[in-house]
Every structure is written in C-alpha cells, then in structure tokens.
Amino acid sequence: KKQAEKAVHQKKEQSKTKCRKARRRHVNLVAEFNRRQRKNIWLETHIWHAKRFHMVKKWGYCLGNSPTEKCYRACYRAMTNHCLLQDLSYYCCLELTGKENELLKQLVRICSVDTGLTFRVARCLSGRFQGSLNLYRADRYPEDALGPVTFIWKPRDGSENRQLWIWMHPALKQDILNELKEIFQCSEPEKVYIPEPATTSAQEEEQMDVVLSLGKKRKKEDKEGEKAVPVKKIIGDGTRDPLQSYSWISQTTGVVISDRTMEILRYRLIGPLSHCVLTETLKAASLQTV
After folding, report:
1. pTM here?
2. Class assignment of domain 92-188+245-261?
3. Which Pfam families match (predicted)?
4. Which end of the chain is more exposed for a tag (fewer CB within 10 A), N or C?
C-alpha cells in the first residue's frame, strides 16, 4: 500500500507546455503577443528589434536600447555610405484641424521668433517642408519651456480648414496636450474612444485549450486550429489610457485636436542612398478620374 501511494505521489503531472509547432501557430502567437502587450505597447518593428537588441520598457512602450552584437561599425558604414533606418513611431503625434487663421492666432502664443522658426514660416506653411521649434506655456516665453517639437502642415487643397501635425517625445505629450487644449478652449471631447472587448487571460487560456487540449490527436488539433478565429491584434497607445478620449473640439473656434499617436508610423532614413531607397520602395498609385 505504501509503495502504491508512493508511486501515485511520484507520478508526474501531465505537462501543459505545448510543443513548439503548437506554440508557433498563428492563433496562439497572436494571443500570446496580445497578452504581452497589456502593459507596454510594441512598435511595428518590435519582432525584428527583439531578436537583435536589448529591449527596455519606457514611456509605455517596449523599445530597443542597444544591439546585442557589436554592430556599431556596420551602422556607421550604413550612415556614411548606404542607408540606415530608425523607427520613431513611439513619438507622439497631435493633429490640429481648423481654420488657418484661428490656428496661427493661438499657436503664436506658445512659441517665439527669438528662438528661430515658428508655425507661420512660409516654407513650412506651404506643407513642403518640416519645421522644428521649442514650445513654451502660453505667453510665458522665455520661462516655462515645454520642450522641442517638429511639425508639418498638410498642403492647401482650396479649403479654409488646414491640418497641422505636431510630433513630440512621449515624455512631453501630456504637458503639450493640456496646453493646446487650454489655448484653443477644447474642453468637450468630440467622441469617446470605446475599445473593443479584449480577450482576457481566462478567455485566452480557454481558447488555446480548445485548440490544443491535452489528450487529443494531432489531426483533430489541426482541424480545430484552422477553424479557430485569430485574436485581433491590440492597437493601442502607450501614453494614453484606452478609456480616455482621443479627440477634443472647441465650441468657440471650431478647432479639433486629435491624438494620432501610433496611428501614423514614422521612420527616419539616414545616409546618402536614402532617396534611392525611397524611390525603389514607394510606387506612385495610378489615379482614376471618373
């Protein structure tokens, strides 16, 4: 009897760890990636960086900090002779939409000509060039600096309304956003972002257990895996709570402030062959006129 009880206690429990082939199925990969993005959002190039860089968690994102190999010489050669690409998608983007006069009237309060360019400079106002400047709290220059930003205007299309995109570091986003909402008097949200119900951990485990339940044959698992609907990838913003609003409108000026962070990807190309890479990569679409 003692030997039988001993054998029962020593019997190993059936391992719940799935084989690599099962873990690499698309439905299981998406569910696992979504689970790992609950606290820190991944960039579109995260998988590539995770295989080659030491990753750090900053400002709500998971970013590549330093390479795992000594590739500094290769990066230097790429910058000087070829082309090097950097992923800057973690930078926050705020979109201002409204009449050009109303936008410039209030934006002049948070910058100064003494520091260089402003939002009103002609070459940037046309939408052909990107500008950069330092922002301050309204009417507080040279005190209370907010930080450096870059901006680009959407080219004119014959309408009174213009669009302005302002890019900033995620550490500066909340201060700049609050200042913009104050000077444009945007207090009421235009619409509230209601995220789709995300799959909870219990639901994910249940879904994965259905697909890969223990004791079933491999053939049945494959059939169920084909019919299983992949979990939708979470598209979020590491600097904003999903339950918060992402767009605000002013009742007096009609200016709309929208948070476009992680909706517009941004890459930086460095090197003498940057234009060649863009020329070979981007193809002009054929316009069809009715």
Report:
1. 0.70
2. alpha beta
3. POP1_N (PF06978)
4. C
